[in-house]
Amino acid sequence: MSVLDQAAAANAERSTAFHYLPHIFALTICLSAFLLFGVQPMFTKMVLPSLGGSPAVWSVAMVFFQTLLLLGYLYAHLSARYLGPRQAVILHAALVVAAFLMLPLTVSQALGAPPEEAQGFWLIGVFCASVGLPFFVLAATAPLLQSWIARSGHPEAGNPYALYVASNVGSFIALLAYPLLIEPLLPLQAQTRSWMLAFALLAAGLATCAATTIWRSMLPRAMEATGASNADAAAKSPAWPQRLRWIALAAVPSGLLVSVTAHLSTDVASAPLLWVLPLAIFMLTFILAFRDRPFIGEVMQEKSYVRLLPFVVMSLVGFMLPLAAQFVIHLGIMFLAAMICHGQLYRTRPDNRHLTEFYLWMSFGGMLGGLFAGLIAPLVFNTIIEYRLLLIAAILCLPMAQAAPALRAQLAFVVFALAVAIAFNLISPQIRAYDPAAYHMIALAVGVAFLSIIVFNRSGRITSAGALAATFIAMMPIAGEREATVRSFFGVNYVRLTTDNQVRLLLHGSTIHGAHRILDLNGKPMTGKPQPTTYYHDDGAINIALKAARTQAGGRLGNVAVLGLGVGAMACQSEPGENWSFFEIDREVVTLAKRKELFPFVSTCTPDARIVVGDARLTLQKETVKHDVIILDAFSSDAVPTHLLTREAFGIYLQHLAPDGMIIAHVSNRYMDLRSVAEAAGVAHDLATASSYIKVDLQQTKAQIQLATPTTAVAFSRNPAAIDALLLDKNWRKPAVDAASALWSDDYANILGSIARYTRARWKEPPAP
User: Fold this and answer.
1) What is the pLDDT of residues 447-504, one digit of tens each?
2) How far from chain centre, in Å, is Cα 330?
3) In which band, very low, low, confident or very high, does the pLDDT at 715 lie, cut at 50, 70 and 90?
4) Does residue 606 contact residue 574 with C-beta atoms inside 8 Å?
């Protein structure tokens, strides 16, 4: 090295820019991850109004983003492996410029209207044309920048994997910021403009990193360090068993993320934005695991998680746990399993030379786990059994589960545990029928037995086997507990009887979507026409509005459209000669509603009714007839289809409503104030509007028979006379809402504001569903 070269290198290392080089790279990676994570919900919301909420849209979105993330990692790997610093920087700069020219993001119209067939390929084309290149550039940024800094010769560049923490911090911030700040405060158009400005800031950061990379790569010391490290690493290329291990360790937490979220919302309790908690924990585990030193000493070390996971899994055999305890247990299991897997990923990371290949296999494993739990499992299983399967896989990832000397003992223990689980599953219905308390005591005894084995097994060799046994017991459904279970993309629907066997229920998670009384209050079989139940009882707000519309039409309605089917109880409020049509997005719900032996409403009261399967907004838009009444009945669960309550959606309803017709929106909800949203939509279209919350007197025999439920409904009409008739009832009122604050549109829907209004109302008075 010449004197001039030595001086140049010394000046470079003394420069302020070089000193702060890792910070510049970290901030750039953090911003890229923030944009990458934030664009996914933003763009998916953009396409929903035009493409609907059908499974195809969500499935394509998931597959598209997962696949493009993998392709971005592949590009980063190939760029780092086959291109020099200068060529890699020039190529990525060209891609960044091309991506910026596609902004602000819009839903591309280049492919025209969706075709009648092969819509999946058309959807992929729309995603590619609209957001493909910007997302691809963002996906490649984190691994690419880590490979660049590894070549820089900076004293702190020896472990570029630490920058992965910055990537997950950015994703974590976006995860919290989008539902809590961005979505409530900014319409979609403003979101896309802000996203474009942030992308421009990212481009500036990338330019700084690129310039530094090219400059440093020209210095002799950096070139020598890079050449030495490449030569050394080339001899230590990862073997295929190691690559397969990376894939498995990435797949298990990714699958657990999806399956735990599904399990919590289906089998524990459902609530809006519930998905944020598991995803936040998943991101947090990357932040905690991808570092050399733990945050909180020994407590945060991997061996602590290895000890804790089997004990937490053991609690799965408890059947009488409170709701809060169940949440803690399932989220704790996911946290511990993810920490163990991500910790092993970090410990087995390769040399810097193979950094991008490591991230490529990690991404591939994450994609496999997500696709299995999100797309394949709903088609194969009719319950959330994939959660238990992935939990078994997580237990097998424990170091003690992989110890060869313990395999024979573990196999014998697991076989015994399976036998115990099967026997317990077979005898539990008889025990429960004889003495429910004894049933839970036996369940507790089984759990204590396994726990004792773990506690007194000091070697730890069968600890994972004990956890497996608990999982096997927990994954076996109790015989006779459900009459029918069906699963679709939208979740698990199951049919069961109440404890007194008088009522049959259809449940989706913790939400009751319909009920049919099969025995009267004295335990005798019901006869005659099925009684409309729950929200649809005779004295409920929905039926009162329907009667007003029928009176306005001269005593009989022509065409009636109901958006949402459930068990079809609304069908028994029809009158002879009326033409009813139901629009339902979930084909499995239609199958259950048509089974007369389970729910006889549709087959008895409206046997000739049309049932249209698909997104209600899109399918109604294709109708050619005018309807006297349109009933909106899709908002009682935690997952509210916002695109059915927007100003633009009401515009579509009005196009298919008769001049003197009525829209009835059933907006009962356990978490959100949708009454104000619906009223605001009526005000925005200058409609005569009235809303009602009608309570129930359960002392009345009729209310008990019909399982009457308090109901909130809003009625709209171009003809004020029909609404004036409703307002004569003291339970109905005119809108008392600022339309500007509560109105939803395709560009802006403030879900958090709706939750906040509902929460405030609960503090002031008894809640209206």
Assistant:
1) 555 555 554 454 444 555 555 555 555 554 544 456 788 887 777 888 988 878 889 9
2) 16
3) very high
4) yes
| Confidence grade of residue 297 (pLDDT, cut at 50, 70, 90) | very low
Q: Quote the CA–CA distance of 6 and 12 in Å, as a whole number.
A: 10
Quote the pLDDT of residue 693. Answer: 86
Residue with the two structure tokens 């493409």: 51
Residue 762 is predicted with a pLDDT of: 73
Q: Could you give the CA distance from residue 430 to residue 432 in angstroms, rounded to a whole number?
A: 5
Instruction: Provide the angle, in degrees to the nearest 10, between the axes of the packed helices 675-684 and 751-764.
Output: 120
What is the rounded CA–CA span in Å between residue 576 and residue 695?
29
Read off the tokens for 646.
């927007």
Average pLDDT over all residues of the chain: 79
SS3 assignment, position 361: helix
Q: In degrees, to the nearest 5, what angle opens at C-alpha 663 toward C-alphas 657 and 668?
A: 155
| CA distance linking residue 535 with residue 543, whole number of Å | 9
Top mean pLDDT of 144-158, 165-179, 312-326 is at 165-179
> Could you give the C-alpha distances from 730 to 644, 690, 696, 727, in angstroms and in order?
28, 11, 15, 7
Report helix, strand or coil for 57. helix
Please state the three-class secondary structure of 162-207 as a single string: HHHHHHHHHHHHHHHHHHHHHHHHCCHHHHHHHHHHHHHHHHHHHH
Q: How would you classify the pairing of strands 688-694 and 627-632?
A: unpaired
Q: Where is pLDDT greater, at 463 or 41? A: 41
* 313 conformational bin, left if phi > 0, alpha if psi -120 to 50, beta if neither: alpha
Question: DSSP alpha helices (H): ranges in 295-353?
Answer: 302-314, 323-347
- The encoded tokens of residue 615 equal 């997104």
Using DSSP, state whether 41 is helix, strand or coil. helix
Cα angle at 643 between 725 and 280, to 5 degrees? 130
Hey, what are 298's tokens?
């020994």
Give me the mean pLDDT over the 606-610 stretch: 93
Q: The pTM is what? A: 0.80
Query: How does DSSP assign 220-267, residue by residue?
Result: HHHHHHHHHHHHHHHTTPPPHHHHHHHHHHHHHHHHHHHHHHHHIIII
Cβ of 97: how many Cβ atoms within 10 Å? 11
pLDDT of residue 235: 45
Q: Which residue has the higher pLDDT, 534 or 219?
A: 534
Cβ atoms of 55 and 120 closer than 8 Å: no
382: Cα separation from own chain's centroid: 18
Task: Name the residue type at position 734.
Answer: K
Q: How confident is the model at residue 425 (pLDDT cuts 50, 70, 90)?
A: low
Query: Taking Cα atoms as reference points, which of 523, 573, 566 lies closest to residue 549?
Result: 573
Report the DSSP beta bridge partners of residue 493. Answer: 486, 508
Contacts of 655 (CB under 8 A, 6+ apart): 621
**Which structure tokens are listed for 75?**
């590009």
- Tell me the C-alpha distance between 264 and 271, whole Å: 9
Q: pLDDT tens, 670-683?
A: 888 999 999 999 99
Indicate whether 572 pLDDT > 90.
Answer: yes
Instruction: Give the model's pLDDT for residue 49.
Output: 73
Asked if 397 and 340 touch (Cβ cutoff 8 Å), the reply is yes
| End-to-end Cα, the chain, rounded Å | 78
DSSP state of 376: I
Of the candidates 467, 458, 344, the one whose C-alpha atom is nearest the C-alpha of residue 413 is 467
Instruction: Find which of 234-238, 592-596, 732-736, 762-766 is predicted with most confidence, using mean pLDDT.
Output: 592-596
Give Cα 720 to chain centroid, integer Å: 41
In three state form, how does the secondary structure of 540-595 look?
CHHHHHHHHHHHHCCCCCCEEEEECCCCCHHHHHCCCCCEEEEEECCHHHHHHHHC
